[in-house]
Amino acid sequence: MARAGSQTDTITPQELTVQEEFHRDILAFDRQLHVLLASLVDQASEAFHLVKGAEQDSGVDAWRRLVKRYDPSHPQANMVLLKRVLHPKTVDIDKLLIALDK
Description:
Shape: elongated
Distance between the termini: 28 Å
Helix content: 55-70%
Radius of gyration: 17 Å
């Protein structure tokens, strides 16, 4: 999973099957991971769209996409955080404390 998170290109099920004897098990794990990730995230969230947009319903590719977007040590996630800090949203004064916690 660590290797999948650090990979920048799309991961297809064909790339996962290194040895023929593990082919079915790897593909089954990949499909189960995709279903699990899709069931764990809110359907209205960006994370759900990242999981659903994975190549060929690949769980490992969905994981890669989530890590790329949300892992704070990933450069792209750092850029998103920096933009949020530099361009904060305007809020009403009575909702300021709630907004600061986000």
